[in-house]
What we know:
This protein is of the alpha+beta class. Among the domains are: 19-112, CATH 2.40.50.140; 134-178 and 185-276 and 534-589, Bira Bifunctional Protein, Domain 2 (BirA Bifunctional Protein, domain 2, 2-Layer Sandwich); 300-427, GAD-like domain (Gyrase A, domain 2), CATH 3.30.1360. Helix content is 29%, strand content 23%. The chain has 17 helices and 22 strands. It has helices spanning 64-71, 129-134, 136-139, 143-165, 206-214, 252-271, 284-291, 308-311, 317-324, 342-353, 381-390, 406-423, 469-472, 501-510, 515-528, 543-550, 581-586, and strands at residues 25-37, 41-48, 51-58, 78-87, 101-112, 169-170, 188-190, 198-200, 219-227, 239-248, 281-283, 305-306, 328-334, 361-365, 371-373, 398-404, 434-438, 443-446, 451-454, 481-486, 489-496, 536-542. The strands form 5 sheets. It has an 8-stranded mixed β-sheet, with helices on both faces. A 5-stranded mixed beta barrel has the order 1-2-3-5-4. It has a 5-stranded antiparallel β-sheet with strand order 12-13-16-14-15. α4 (143-165) packs across α16 and α10 packs across α12 (406-423). The model has no long low-confidence stretch (mean pLDDT 93).
Amino acid sequence: MAESMQGLHRTCRCAEVTTEMVGKEVTLMGWVAKARNKGGLVFVDLRDRSGIMQLIFENGSIDEEGFTKAGKLRSEFVIAVTGTVEKRGGAVNENLATGEIELRVKSLRVLAEADVPPFPIEENSKTKDEIRLKYRYLDLRRPDLQRNIMMKSKVAQLTRQFFTEEGFLEIETPMLGKSTPEGARDYLVPSRVHPGSFYGLPQSPQLYKQLLMCSGFDRYIQIARCFRDEDLRADRQPEFTQIDMELSFVDVDDVIDVNERYLAFLFKEVLDIDVKLPIQRITWQEAMDRFGSDKPDMRFGMELHDVSDIVKDCGFGVFTGALENGGSVRGINAEGQGAMPRKKIDKLVEFVKGYGAKGLAYIAIAEDGTRKSSFAKFMTDEEMDALVKAMDGKAGDLLLFAADRTKLVYDVLGALRLELAKQMDLLDKNEYRFVWVTEFPLLEWSEEENRFTAMHHPFTMLMEEDLPLLDTDPGKVRAKAYDIVLNGNEIGGGSVRIHQDDIQERMFEALGFTKEAAHEQFGFLLDAFKYGVPPHAGLAYGLDRLVMLMAKADTIRDVIAFPKVKDASCLMTQSPSQVSEAQLHELGLDLEPQKEEEE
Length: 599
């Protein structure tokens, strides 16, 4: 039977009991993590969000009835105990904050009994994700997940503190807005009052934060909820949180400066790690040429080498064919992997096919300097020597090459570089390598739509000196856009915005928008810009991803209290779910009957 806690007050949390409190009487409350009945003694590990405290029940220190009750305690029972703090009688537990002390219990109340949980509540659970997410409220009792959620709370609180001191105002923007599908798919909310009309949930507060700059608030910050109805990958959630900011009367360097100081402050306060400022900056082009990625992981080398010039006249058709089609030939050197078995190389070939490569050419250099290669027979010895030299190949190295359209070669080698780093154990989670990637292309060509689309969004400012290229070679125009990358993850990104209407009009033209179409989608912003708009720029972090890296978690689900799974459903609440006919009727909606699956 559950008992009342009336008249009892918790002194502190379990792990807040210290050796200074020895001899004092305290009241603790929490969950039974473990109970061990040793005949005349019962030991219980009591757990709450702070950690564990060992309780000791002994006949004599507690009355007969209390001792009998203690013998029946099972895991996850919720209890309240009052007793005296003592030095541990048995061995000291070095792994616990309270490892030198225990609580000799005088009185016990069972506040709630518990069924046997469907899986053990323990750190680094091996239980299947589906089961853990179905019983997420139990999963969240695990100390490792609780530490992550507590760290996220601390990051949010420090973020507010830092930006407040920098003169930012926290301003909320609407959840129910206009659907502006530019980017991912919007989540739509039907309106009851305006039948047939819909609100869109924000993919980000982009338009509102720019309007706040027009309103003169000059420094805005928001920890904002965002929604994207896109096909989920392992590390995407349909709803996520941004640390969103916008600043007026600034250029790229101003935004970068305040954010570098913010990251240094955050990492020092939360992890006691010193981030060396200024953070290195590389251009987008340099990132692609060296790492094959616009979010380079710089904890290890293995950079790309462009060997197009070396092989342009060789006899290997795969190389020369790619060059004749305007592509390139590039390679990476997996140092010390020259003895990789053929089977493993074949696996790498399969891996790169997943990124669109037709294959992978290789040269394996044995310790004695002899070479095995998939294409040696098409090359002269001199050509092979020149290629190995261009790749800095030494005895014991494995050289891998991709030849195709340059964009594809970047993708393939960028992914292969990371895959090899994993296999070779080069990724240290305790190392934090930041880099700014700047000067992104303003536009990218979309094969599906047969037009240029905005790489970030249509309000991104271009480098002034590239303005003439907008008419002649739009693909070459660089944007005043910047991403902050940490260990190969883009944790934040932003840009200077366009504030001159003539440039904005040219941008819409380049994107293939008519004046009417631009007004239809973004009219309220364009109208606002007629009334005196300051130069402005902004940046947004993915809070979940940032905390994931700080907590060394493997997925963003580990830093979100109630995440969704890959098909955007919640296993715990079983949403999304059907609603009643009456609710649909009120909204003026009716559903087409689902076709029965044919047997």
